[in-house]
Structures are given as C-alpha cells and as structure tokens.
C-alpha cells in the first residue's frame, strides 16, 4: 500500500473525507434548489409535524423561514470562524511588534 492510499484510508475511517462514511450531507446545506426544497419538506415534516397536503400558509411560511435560517447559520458560523482566526493572527503580529520594539 502506497503512502497516498494509506492516507486516504485513514481519512475515510476518521470521518474527514467526503465519502459516505465520512461526511453526511444534510438538506440544511447548499443553496441549490434541490437541497432547498428538501430542507423545506423536512422542516414541514420534522419541525412542524405537518405534511405538504395539509400544510396551511402559516406552516409553509414557518418552514420557509426555518430553511432560510439553516443556510444563514452555516454562513454565519463560517464567517465568525474566519474573523476569529484573523483577529488571532492580528493580535500575534501586534504582540510581536511590541516585543520587537522593546529590544
């Protein structure tokens, strides 16, 4: 077994890859119409306990709001993580420049 095959095998077993065993894709991700539609249906059924045929306008509105919220949360978490990493590196640079000036 080559080094790359060993690494790929370890990634598959540790859940870090995009395989079926690794990352489980959910309908709460993605902005494509298919995943959005699936997320909408899942919120009707599992969040609101209503099927599409018996759902009223208020149920449809709530399912839509929850579906949009899912996508916004994913983007917010990603943005927050990037900002925290940027702030951490900025703090390190400032600290190093202060220590350098003291010498």
Q: Could you please describe the fold and organization of this structure?
A:
The chain has one domain (26-102). Helices cover 71% and strands 0% of the residues. The chain is built from 3 helices and no strands. Helix 2 (33-47) packs across helix 3. Residues 9-22 have low confidence and may be disordered.
What attributes characterize this protein structure?
103 residues; mainly alpha; 3 helices; rod-shaped
Low-confidence sequence ranges: 9-22
The total beta strand count reads: 0
Estimated share of beta-strand residues: under 5%
- Counted by DSSP, the helix tally is 3
How would the blueprint of this fold be written?
Elements: H1 3-14, H2 33-47, H3 57-102
How do you describe this structure in short?
With 103 residues, the chain is an all-alpha fold. The chain has three helices and no strands. The protein has one domain.
């Amino acid at each position: 077994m080559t080094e790359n095959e060993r690494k790929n095998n370890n990634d598959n077993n540790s859940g870090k890859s995009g395989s079926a065993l690794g990352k489980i894709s959910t309908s709460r991700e993605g902005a494509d119409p298919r995943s959005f539609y699936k997320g909408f249906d899942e919120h009707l059924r599992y969040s609101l306990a209503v099927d599409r045929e018996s759902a009223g306008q208020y149920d449809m509105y709530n399912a839509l709001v929850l579906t949009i919220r899912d996508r916004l949360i994913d983007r917010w978490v990603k943005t927050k993580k990037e900002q925290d990493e940027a702030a951490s590196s900025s703090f390190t640079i400032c600290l190093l420049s202060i220590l350098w000036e003291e010498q």
